[in-house]
Amino acid sequence: MSVTFNGKYLEPFIGAHEYDALQPQVTALHKVLHEGTGLGNKFLGWINQPETYDREEFARIKAAAEKIKKDTEVFIVIGIGGSYLGSRAVVELLQSPFYNNLKKNTPDIYFVGNNINSGYLNEVLSLCEGKEVSVNIISKSGTTTEPSIAFRVFRELLEKKYGKEGARGRIYATTDRAKGTLKKLATEEGYEAFVVPDDIGGRYSVLSAVGLLPIAVSGVDIDELMAGAKAAKDALATDDLSQNDSYKYAVARNILARKGKDIEILVSYDPAFAMMNEWWKQLFGESEGKDGKGLYPASAVFSTDLHSLGQFIQQGSRTMFETVVHFGEAKTPLTIGKLDEDIDGLNFLAGKTLDFVNDRAFEGTVLAHTDGNVPNIVLEVPKISAHEVGYLIYFFWKACALSGYLVGINPFDQPGVESYKKNMFALLGKPGYEEQKAALEARLGR
Ligand SMILES: O=P(O)(O)OC[C@H]1O[C@H](O)[C@H](O)[C@@H](O)[C@@H]1O
């Protein structure tokens, strides 16, 4: 097993019999999930995806990535939510958060269309000056405002730079197989198109073309990523809690929620994991947070945040627990040197690696936070590799699905996201929203 559930530090908070008590529910809900009889059952394509994914499209993704690596210096990835977080998370974790600054033979990658800030977009535009640019527009619906606006801007840039025909060969559209504005445009313009499968929702789409094209462009081995997910699919196909660590994680967080915890903080000791935190927040937040229920997904990177949030976690309101993703092996170890004169008093660490120190910080923190009544789940991941990350992604997917069913909600929809959108469209004066506009303007005192 690649990702293992370490429940050692949970023992003061959860007794073994509490897991056993939930086994019958897990067995029943596992059946519901695998037989597709539960809520949101139109969106279960991810369960078998690591095995059944479209090989022909996978080969096209690799070919497109190779072309982009050859003819592109700046690759612009346009998308928001599930159409952006996963690919950025995997690139930053497996390559580097400094990916664009590395000396490398792959293009720089900028993620846009994930906000509506003009400063951000202007800065990325200026980074494209004098560079060979290609664009991947990613939207399952094809109608999301943020990426649509950014695509307008970059399409214009490409058409000005390369002409209409030249731009066509540099635009890649990842969207619905058959419907939606973006699909229509891609067909009309002749952009190379990749598919977001009908039965896979945005937050479960990182291992489809949505994530795979940008990830492949960054030089990550996508075969290994898929092989890791496949290993997880096979290992996590059982309902037996003693054999399925993904379900055990789901159950532990469910028990803690029933004991009054409201917040789960996903913790890593690697800053390269920061965007994985963000990906995980969408996965669990959008899946579980509905009908007045769900754990609020928060995140922290230690030891950085021990110097900001650490005080609150140790002694503030006792509403949270932590889930630490602990990697066993560092990507590139670094050893601490010895000074002739021990001016900083750190010679006792000479010859030790930074990871040795980081691991003692981890152990010390887990024990301190546990003493402070913050339960700690630890997920052990042997190392940072494409295989392990593929496994981890699937591990979280599966845990999230079971978790949602345990909470009694539909883990695969997100109706609440529409509320702000409707208001925004009305306030922007979108045709058809006239009545709402008047009501909202009155509430805003205009
Ligand atoms: O891929 P898209 O259709 O553009 O959607 C992008 C994102 O925005 C929506 O508002 C949903 O809440 C997310 O689940 C989705 O991942």
TrEMBL record:
It holds the Pfam family PGI. It is found in: Cytoplasm. GO terms for biological process: gluconeogenesis; glucose 6-phosphate metabolic process; glycolytic process. Its EC number is 5.3.1.9. GO terms for molecular function: carbohydrate derivative binding; glucose-6-phosphate isomerase activity; monosaccharide binding. Its main location: cytoplasm. Pathway: Carbohydrate biosynthesis; gluconeogenesis; Carbohydrate degradation; glycolysis; D-glyceraldehyde 3-phosphate and glycerone phosphate from D-glucose: step 2/4. It comes from the Bacteria. It catalyses: alpha-D-glucose 6-phosphate = beta-D-fructose 6-phosphate. Keywords: Cytoplasm, Gluconeogenesis, Glycolysis, Isomerase. One of its GO terms (cellular component) is cytosol. Catalyzes the reversible isomerization of glucose-6-phosphate to fructose-6-phosphate. Belongs to the GPI family. This is Glucose-6-phosphate isomerase. It comes from Ethanoligenens harbinense (strain DSM 18485 / JCM 12961 / CGMCC 1.5033 / YUAN-3).
